[in-house]
Amino acid sequence: MEVFRIYTRSPLRNFTYILRNPETFQTLSIDPYDPNQIDSFLEKRGWNLDFILNTHEHADHTSGNEVLFQKYKPIVYCHPAGIGKIPHATHPIKKGDRILTSSDRYLEILDTPGHTFCHVCLLLVEQGKSKAIFTGDTLFNAGVGNCYRGGDPEILARTILEQIYPLENEIVLYPGHDYLESNLKFTLSLDPSNQYAIDTLKESDRLQKDVEFLTTTLGKEKKINTFLQCDRPSKDLLENLRKKSTLHVTKNDPKSVFVSLRSLRDHW
Ligand SMILES: [Fe+2]
């Protein structure tokens, strides 16, 4: 699959993605934000827009729908509970559905509630192997989405623990926002000797700001993202979490670690 990441320069640092299946020449936009930016990308290449998929209903993930729909008349997919909330969404997609399919590749839908209750993620599978995941506001580089605009931290904990933890380390992460730098600083506020986070922050500092972005894998995320360490928190992480959190944290209860982390991150 051809994957293009477009940085929107929005106040919330959104990413929009354009995917093109080289076998069918069909094109999909995930979370279109700025319709003019996407339109000029497509125009330059002479491409149509066959599909839109909104990972969830928040306006910063759907604001491009209206203008793009008028011009390209794409099929607009979303979680069944997003129908009626997301502009022009008519095609509900559920867990296990496949889109942008051809003989050797497709996007598989994961039903991932927690940030909101209309949230899906997309797993890119090629030649039978999971290659990348588009996570909207469920999983970010070194962090996860918040739950205070229609979500629930306990439900997000379950989604991350049950659906993201088992995925292979080689899978490339494509999140809905760029929060890498602030999230790494959050990691280091609780786990200051995390050398992977220190190195990744340095790596990110060397990139051209707002032009180049670090792309991580889930394997790397497991080292720098505290929310992916709830089943095996380091000594420092656990101690600092207990010191700073008002919630009860139990070492062998990953959900309690996750919910405490989410609550600390909300006020950090
Ligand atoms: Fe959101």
TrEMBL record:
Give binding positions for Zn(2+) 1: 56, 58, 115, 137
Pathways per UniProt: Secondary metabolite metabolism; methylglyoxal degradation; (R)-lactate from methylglyoxal: step 2/2
Query: Its Enzyme Commission number?
Result: 3.1.2.6
InterPro entries attached here? Answer: Clx_II_MBL, Glyoxalase_II_hydrolase, HAGH_C, Hydroxyacylglutathione_Hdrlase, Metallo-B-lactamas, RibonucZ/Hydroxyglut_hydro
MF terms (GO), sorted A to Z: hydroxyacylglutathione hydrolase activity; metal ion binding
Q: Which Gene3D superfamilies match?
A: Ribonuclease Z/Hydroxyacylglutathione hydrolase-like
Catalytic activity reported: an S-(2-hydroxyacyl)glutathione + H2O = a 2-hydroxy carboxylate + glutathione + H(+)
Name its co-factor(s): Zn(2+)
Q: Does the keyword Metal-binding apply?
A: yes
Q: Which example biological process does GO assign this protein?
A: methylglyoxal catabolic process to D-lactate via S-lactoyl-glutathione
> What does the entry list as the binding residues for Zn(2+) 2?
60-61, 137, 177
UniProt key word Zinc: yes
Domain spans labelled Metallo-beta-lactamase: 13-177
> What UniProt keywords are attached to this protein's entry?
Hydrolase, Metal-binding, Zinc
Recorded superkingdom: Bacteria
The broad enzyme category this protein falls into is: hydrolase
What the record notes about the co-factor is: Binds 2 Zn(2+) ions per subunit.
- Subunit structure, interactors included: Monomer.
* Function per UniProt: Thiolesterase that catalyzes the hydrolysis of S-D-lactoyl-glutathione to form glutathione and D-lactic acid.
Similarity annotation:
Belongs to the metallo-beta-lactamase superfamily. Glyoxalase II family.
Question: Which protein, by its recorded name, is this?
Answer: Hydroxyacylglutathione hydrolase
UniProt source species? Leptospira adleri
**Which lineage ranks, top first, belong to the organism behind this chain?**
Bacteria, Pseudomonadati, Spirochaetota, Spirochaetia, Leptospirales
